[in-house]
Amino acid sequence: MDFITDIMTYQFLQKALITSIAVGIICGIIGSFIILRGMALMGDAISHAVLPGVAISYMLGINYFYGAVTFGILTAIGIGVVSQNSRIKNDSSIGIVFTAFFSLGIILIAQAQTATDLTQILFGNVLSIRNSDMIMTLITSAIIIFAVTAFYKELLVSTFDETMAAAYGLPTKLIHYGIMVLLTLATVASLQTVGVVLVVAMLITPAATAYLLTNRFWIMLILSSFFGALSSVIGLYISFKHNLSSGAVIVLTATALFILVFIFSPKQGVLWRSLRSRKSRTAMEH
Amino acid sequence: MNGLVNANNLSVSYYGKEVVRNVSFSFKTGNLIGIIGPNGAGKSTLMKAVLGLVPRDSGRVEICGKPIKESQKNIAYVPQRSNIDWDFPILVRDTVLLGTYPKLGLFQKPRKSDKEWAYHCLEKVGMQNYSKTQIGELSGGQQQRVFLARALAQKASFFFLDEPFVGIDVASEKMIIDILQVLRDEGKTIFVVHHDLTKVKEYFDELILMNKELIESGPVQQVIRPELMTRAYKMDFHLLHKMGVEV
Hints:
Structural class of chain A: mainly alpha
Helix content of chain B: 25-40%
Low-confidence stretches of chain B: none
Number of helices of chain A: 15
Mean pLDDT of chain B: 90
Order of helices and strands of chain B: EEEHEEEHHHEHEHEEHHH
Distance between the termini of chain B: 34 Å
Helix content of chain A: over 70%
Oligomer: heterodimer
Number of helices of chain B: 9
Shape of chain A: globular
């Protein structure tokens, strides 16, 4: 109950809560696409590769969203160019491109000389979120939710069967880059809550948890957002109460939810699976 | 529909290696056409090149005198089963419903009539009892029938099936070929990538025999000739005979 009183009292806590719930929801949505398209590594890559964009934005004195989004898209294009024009496989080209951008970012951040240091970008600082950041996150969330709702049909068919989608004339490359843009937006929105290093967890863990629970894509999107948001709320509470790093606690909460589902999921859970196979073994013996 | 499906000098290469070389063919619409040849002959690639799914080095494909791009919404493509993620969270009925998407506008959701039509297509392949099953829980033959139902749901005039008979049971194979032959009788044009030579004569009206380049195309009898088959398969003719090719 103290937590609720604290939320009523402290504005910074309200902002932290609203922002991290929004981040949990959008990462859950985009993460579902990422894991079904087999692009988990891409999520990690883009979150790291936005760093030089953040640094340049500080230098120019503009909101870091603009620089980060620019570099996120550059990364997606760079990875596509390397893997499509050579025999280098996609995961290798991801490794080449994102580490280059990340290294560039480390150097530029040091040059930028701002109050925000590298640690804050790497690990997030949800309790120091400014009004402008919160509003940016909410706008981003609105854009992502709108885009996914409006183009649900196209996103579903191109994620499930890209060849069929291309055969009937959907611009599958454009859709791929569209998802990259949304992924970048979600990543940048997550920088303040969990930081560059842990964004990939917010993208993958809640989506993977949802994936174990349903056989329907739209339910997966909803469950995944729910787990993302729930992890944010519980994680924020624990980190505030025990004075722990909020990003890390949020991620560990998401992991805890995953483990619960991994063990107890009625269809995919390891517990029921082993019970079922033991039962069928006994049945065979008799 | 009266007309021709024409391909002129199609070539495709991956990283400088030619996998399809200068293939041309011409068929009347309303035929059931098999694309045959040994493993690695570029059959699937040819099909993808025809559909514009892989970049062509050269060549043109026309349907009834117009570039194939203009017929895209009138084409149903069934990919190889190995290209599908069978763990994807999607039910059988929603998979078939995807077949109604090409004719829906942007932002338009499937209507009740679309869902009924998808269910009807599921009935045609005898899979209506599985409509709420996740696709990965089906057998290979059932999966292939569901994807045929999806193609039927597209109400297309042209069908392209990539290796539909690989790894499926006899009953499903029979059902699929029966449906394809009915479609052909209704005037649809169907291309099938196929590598089992045994039933070629029963299944198809026309054949494309290839091994990177075209060996021969035309009516089945004209194509399954020992000298042509040996050229394509580059091996002892007796082996072909053992595989059941009667000549």
